Amino acid sequence: MLIDKQKMVNKYPKCFVTVGTTRFDLLTEYITSTSVLRALKQIGCVEITFQIGNSAVNPEEYEKEGIKLSLYRFKDSIQEDIRNADLVISHAGAGSCLEVLEAHKPLLVVINEELMDNHQLELAEQLQVDGHLYYCTCDTLENTLSTVDFNLLTPLPKPNCSLFVKYLDDVFKVKTF
């Protein structure tokens, strides 16, 4: 799982970070910290588009550690930001995770440990076990960025609608002729 730094240069020049619709100040603080920005730069990041939601920081554009940061609160859709990204770092909301995985983008999920009912952890754990993403906490973000190989992730399989139809047929005892 360790990465060869020489192969990673400019591998992920454009990163998209999203905290969703809530407030995740700790992730906002960590992403913009010198140490995490340096870890991102090590894997080739030169530009971060950052959806900050209701976080305490103000939307703005600036450069730090040689990385251009563009922070905004909300948009009607983040699909374009996901599509334009080489790497996505996200909170563990189901909607955000699925949207990124369906776009076949490498995904690092950061768990919000301040949530009382941390159902997000269960989702992130299962998707990591299945090989679709990596997850970490804010405290382990820098180390995770430095050690995982996003090339090892497997795309989320396309949904098989026939399984759902079969389930409905079985539940409602529908007979096909």
Structural notes for this entry:
Helix 6 (119-129) links the parallel strand 6 and strand 7 (134-137). The protein has helices at residues 5-8, 25-31, 34-42, 79-84, 94-102, 119-129, 141-147, 161-172, and strands at 14-18, 47-51, 61-64, 67-72, 87-90, 107-111, 134-137. The model is unreliable at 1-9 (pLDDT under 50). With 177 residues, it is of the alpha/beta class. The protein is elongated. Helix 3 (34-42) runs parallel beside helix 7. A 7-stranded mixed beta sheet has the order 3-4-2-1-5-6-7, sandwiched between helices.
Quick overview:
Helices cover 37% and strands 19% of the residues. It is α/β, with parallel strands linked by helices and 177 residues long.
Keywords:
177 residues, alpha/beta, 8 helices, elongated, disordered N terminus
Class per helix and strand makeup: alpha/beta
Helical segment tally?
Answer: 8
Radius of gyration: 18 Å
**Mass-distribution shape:** elongated
Distance between the termini: 51 Å
Low-confidence stretches: 1-9
Strand order of the largest sheet: 3-4-2-1-5-6-7
Overall strand count? 7
Mean pLDDT: 89
Task: Tell me the layout of helices and strands.
Elements: H1 5-8, E1 14-18, H2 25-31, H3 34-42, E2 47-51, E3 61-64, E4 67-72, H4 79-84, E5 87-90, H5 94-102, E6 107-111, H6 119-129, E7 134-137, H7 141-147, H8 161-172
Parallel strand pairs: 1-2, 1-5, 2-4, 5-6, 6-7
Antiparallel strand pairs: 3-4
Helix pairs in contact: 3-7
